[in-house]
Give the backbone structure.
Amino acid sequence: MGRDVIPPIHGYAGCHPAPRHLLVYRYLKNNVSALTLTPVQHIPLIRRDDNLADIVVNALQENDISLEDNDILVFAQKIISKAEGRAINLATITPSQRALELAKQTEKDARVVELILRESNEVLRTRVGALIVEHKLGFVCANAGIDHSNVSPSETSEVFGDFGSLSAEDWVLLLPAEPDRSAEKMRDEIKSKTGKRVGVLIIDSHGRAWRNGTVGVAIGIAGLPALEDLRGKPDLFGYKLQVTQVGVADELAAAASLMMGQAAEGTPVVHVRGFPYPMREATLKELIRPKEQDLFR
Amino acid sequence: MGRDVIPPIHGYAGCHPAPRHLLVYRYLKNNVSALTLTPVQHIPLIRRDDNLADIVVNALQENDISLEDNDILVFAQKIISKAEGRAINLATITPSQRALELAKQTEKDARVVELILRESNEVLRTRVGALIVEHKLGFVCANAGIDHSNVSPSETSEVFGDFGSLSAEDWVLLLPAEPDRSAEKMRDEIKSKTGKRVGVLIIDSHGRAWRNGTVGVAIGIAGLPALEDLRGKPDLFGYKLQVTQVGVADELAAAASLMMGQAAEGTPVVHVRGFPYPMREATLKELIRPKEQDLFR
């Protein structure tokens, strides 16, 4: 909460009940079309320094998807991280005293815990298998988003040379260093390759307080709104709504996550058409609740 | 966490890296089609005892949407609540001592606080404007999901008779009493009217710990999975994943919420085609993290 910069975007702005003809007008304005999310097939395994924009533009062609202005491309963070060379070989990591203690508490690999600490501002909670942290990027998540899965021996040996007997279990993948920047760069490259002005969203899967199951959330954003601030926008009868900040980028992240699946990496990019809000510049920061306004820290 | 009842549904089940031809097989299995979410236009204002199933089936026809088996219909809780007569006139509510105290703390209407307490198991946190509670239905949310907006004088006077000078600000809407049951009933009625076996999801917008903005979440489910438990399903290279419970019903709820908007009530129903998981029976309970496993209570 605490933002007040985005003016109401459309609709009747009075505080009294809207006259009948304006209600009808609101109905007409709601005549939005469908939202379509299409998994982009045939993305190859991504390695460090691959040109992801080229790969995606080619894959879109193979999928017979012709980009239009205001389309959105949603990327799983994993392929952005791989292209940016964020795979780390655990043999290169020496755990600190604090990492050793937390590793004992959580029954985790101390080298992974060390990386979690390096990637985080603060540890909020621990349990067996997980440290819940505030990531340096600002959001709260388990294990700083560090991922053991889908890092293949062949990919990593390309990156770091041949470690011989090392198995892929010795490699982990950090989140992209600056996901907003990665999204922006991708958006600009796609613009220059296709002429189309699209939005780009980078997402990860996060667990949640109170509810079981992970859901997709935004960790990097370019060219689409993160929050829609509808506070003060009147409802159908013209009464002021009290709280109507909507996490639209997270809602879209969840939708795209549904179409990516979780385990296999066959569909790490989803094409979106029909996003119902006006496009604008935004950053992840909009979605991070300031610590002092958070009742659950 | 802590569930272990749903077996892995598909894919290579070994613990060692999958042979090359199985990786290819996984690619082919990922050949899912698009997810399409279409707001159903022209749903009239809903009043108590309206037959919502009839109204929706008619609206689908008007929208040229022909239902198919395995389609999903997502309903905003508000219209379910209205049809079920969950509008309450605040003039009929006498606040308890505890409600008066909490109302002072939170600067809220004591009668609304009284209703929040009646609808809840426990108050977790308070701040000005909000009580964060465990709702009787099991989930954690602000103000027990009680809603001031979009309850019109004309609708409520139909329900409770004419209160003369009372404004709509004196009316609030509680959540449906048993949303899983409401979803099941809707699913069955649609089956009997159309012959099609669809999934039904009832959603609300919830705030979140740590992140700004509300997102759509499931509060009632019939005929589609709530969680997909992919723990132990191997990744692309055959390594065991550690945590892969995905809140697929919540991901779909977020997607549908994006297409409903927040303020106007013109599109409280969204039609979904292409949900990528097998349909099955489920209830909201799958999505509720047991209190003793919740680090943020």
